[in-house]
Amino acid sequence: MKNEHEIAQGAQTPSTPRRTRPPRLDWAAIAPSVAQLRRQGYSARETARRLGLNIKTLEAHLRRHRIRHAIPMDRPDQVRRTCLNCDTAFVADGRFLRLCPDCRAIFS
Asked: What is residue 52's predicted lDDT score, i.e. its pLDDT?
């Protein structure tokens, strides 16, 4: 009984390979814009918003290509942060700073 089922399944396999759908996004065209926005200090969320992408799609792309942080740090006591007010990425001088310098100037 078991062998008959396996034989019947083996006979039904298609001879043509399965087709996958084409990619929805042309990353070759989008990647330079993503790199430019990340160099300017925009967070992944703001970058996705400006390019009209889904945030999860962009995060998966950055993770897949091991693109972590666009802003280099000079000292070990600096911390990468995303501003709680405007969502831009910045390097904070201390671990308790949560607003970028521009927003800090507005609220001060």
From this structure: 93
Q: For the residues of 7-57, what is the DSSP string, one character each?
A: HHHHHTS-SSPPPPPPPSS-HHHHHHHHHHHHHTTB-HHHHHHHHT--HHH
pTM of the model: 0.47
pLDDT for residue 7 is more than 80: no
Find tokens 């009984």 and name the residue.
1
Domain containing 33 equals 29-107
- Tell me the DSSP string of 43-84: -HHHHHHHHT--HHHHHHHHHHTT---SS--SSTT-EEEE-T
Q: Is 93 helix (H, G, I), strand (E, B) or coil?
A: coil
Query: Does 76 reside within a domain?
Result: yes
Q: In the chain, how many domains are there?
A: 1
Q: pLDDT tens-digit profile of 35-89?
A: 898 888 788 888 999 999 998 888 888 888 777 665 566 676 778 888 889 888 8
Look at residue 14 and tell me if it is in a domain.
Answer: no
